[in-house]
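Notebook, p. 212. Picked up where the previous page left off. The plan for this session was modest: take the two constructs that came back from the sequencing core last week, fold each one, and keep the raw output in the notebook itself so nobody has to go hunting through shared drives later. Recording the first one now, exactly as returned: residue sequence, then the structure token string.
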Amino acid sequence: MSTIEIFILALIQGLTEFLPISSSAHLILPSQLLGWADQGLAYDVAVHVGTLLAVMLYFRKEVGSMLVAWVGTLARGKVTVDGNDGNFDGKLAWWILFASIPLGLTGYFGKDFIEEYSRSALVIAATTLLFGALLGFADIKAKQNVSLEKLGFKGAMLIGFSQALALIPGTSRSGITMTIGLMLGLSRTNAARFSFLLSIPGIAMAGGYLTMKLLTSGEGVDWQPMILGSVLSFISAYACIHYFLILVDKLGMMPFVIYRLLLGAGLLWFVLA
């Protein structure tokens, strides 16, 4: 990989991991449109580590409170996922863990099928348009009057099941989870925050899977692109989370909806022309 490829791919990973525009689609497109070679497992691991560290550092207070409360539920032998009893941080931790199961199971059992049949530019164009329009509909029509505490275990699981769809490139993990959060009545900011917290187990699972593939593949590790990619993806992801929360509170999801529709239309034209 050239330095410019390392730089661009790391920025794409960091910026698009948490925006509702699909990181997987944007990482596939350079090879589809520009003929770039696959970046390799080691680099994939590096950029996932960078984005994981970014979201955990940005939400360090929430993650710390959830972890302490979650350990407390284990120590007391009282696991509460719904109702008004129990510490909310502990419940939120359990919601996120349970809501991550559909993504893990779908990824484990469906990864080969997804990689073989859904990584084409046509699929990316279709999912970019479809789920972009759905995000716009949710942003306009949703009531946005439900607090995160009132989301409930069932609501958290609905968001978790929707997250599994993000394994199809172009869907966007953050996009589909925010869409369902908005449809369930969460405010834009709360839908985004829950989506970001939910991303932590998801990114960790993806990074762990890629690490296992790397260890068993015998692929050599070039540390320079790994370190550079990890640092760049961390910086861009951290900045992206911060400014996205500000932007979405002021302007809503429509700038990203418009971008998705333009991108999907452009890809469709490229494929069919």
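Okay, moving on. Second construct, recorded in the same format:
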Amino acid sequence: MPKRRDLTPHENAILLSEVENMCPFCTKPLMYEKKGRNFKLWEGAHIYPLNPNQEEIELLKDEERLHEDINNIRNFIAICGDCHKKFDNPRTVEEYRLLLSIKKNILSKSETRAKYADYQIESEIKEVITMLVEEFNEGALKQLELKALKLDEKANETLTRITKMRIRNEITEYYYYIKEQFVQLDSQYPKSFNHIASQVSAFYNSLSRIEPSQEVVYGQLTEWLSKKTGNSSLGACGIIISFFVQNCEVFS
């Protein structure tokens, strides 16, 4: 019978960071401060049970596992003590699948984020983001005709309807505006647009090889652009990624 191992301080920090200090079941904060000290409200829960009883073995016999070693950190997730008790007693397939799905998304994002450092973006793109956030001139907008929209040709069932609508609106509203900003950027820094477009395309191609969901890819591209430009506005970065959807560097 395997024994529960003690998680290292490093592993504890990883687990807490993965759920962003929030219980994935009830959203309760997992740490609290009192008299200048920080205290835990969470526990590292085994997703697949450490020592399942016969009923649990039967219940989960056909379910996916994240690692063959039950004590591997991939099989742990940080949840509050109350939810841990509810998760374990009694165990249900629905809750097991929920935690498994949450952890799989966490692991997928971690894998993608590890690539952020390998894919650069020209620093000049920050000027386009600044124009959107700080110096935006609504009167300069010129809408793209819907018949010229390329999104519907490239989007598949993995892109949610609400995200597709947002991308469509951003393309039709902002495409010409963003294009003009890149023209002006090229006048200051020759061929900067070609560099930026190729960098976006390269990272998109890298993501699409490991992630089949366009929804996830779009979100990761947006986050990557934000992180690589000093935590710039996610909204502005999303508009720029939408531009590259229309321009064919993304969802090609």
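Notes on construct two before I forget. The two ends are 51 Å apart (CA to CA).
Flagging for discussion at group meeting.
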